[in-house]
Amino acid sequence: MSNQTSPIPPVLETAWKHFADYDSTAEQQQDQYYSLRRWVLYFSIAATFIAIVIENFRAIFPSIMVTLLQVILIALPIAGSVIIAYLSEFRQGQKYLAMRTGAEEVKKEIYLYRTVMQAFPERRKWLNNRIIEIQRQVHRSSGGEVVIKPYKGE
């Protein structure tokens, strides 16, 4: 018996590459999505704090400072609304979910290929067709705007 491992079939290597690409892209898009949502929360908290300060300490501040705080109080919810409109318009939440779903689907098909499909002679063709179908689903689910960043790693 030899301890050498057999070379990975090209179709399996391609499938793992698709998984890694989808996985890393989903992670990056999810981080961006939640970061923008956190900014909306920060703007809301800041606006609430400024409103409380203006209402309770108006007499302490010079009128120019109160005016500046009022402008900031108006600008913060507008900035939050712009971020929410961006997230909604470009469906940022749906994009990372489409990528995550694609990654998990590819992983599922890889495991089927390596376990259940071992006895089938056409399993390479089957895996290749499944990867193509998953690519179509990801493309449709993300509204046709797919930017998949290649995974850089092993």
How is this structure best described in words?
The chain is mostly helical and 154 residues long. It is 76% helix and 0% strand. It contains four helices and no strands. It has helices spanning 10-57, 63-89, 92-114, 123-141. Helix 1 (10-57) packs antiparallel against helix 2 and helix 1 packs parallel to helix 4 (123-141). The longest helix has 48 residues, at 10-57. The mean pLDDT is 89.
How many β-strands, per DSSP? 0
- Biggest beta sheet attributes: none
User: What is the typical, i.e. mean, pLDDT?
Assistant: 89
Tally of alpha and pi helices:
4
> What would the principal axes of the Cα set say about the shape?
rod-shaped
Structural class: mainly alpha
> Strand portion, in percent?
under 5%
Helix coverage percent: over 70%
Assembly state here?
single chain
Rg, Cα atoms, Å = 25 Å
Order of helices and strands: HHHH
Low-confidence stretches: none
Structure, briefly:
With 154 residues, the chain is mostly helical.
Could you give the topology of this structure?
Layout: H1 10-57, H2 63-89, H3 92-114, H4 123-141
Helix pairs in contact: 1-2, 1-3, 1-4, 3-4
Give the key terms.
4 helices, 76% helix
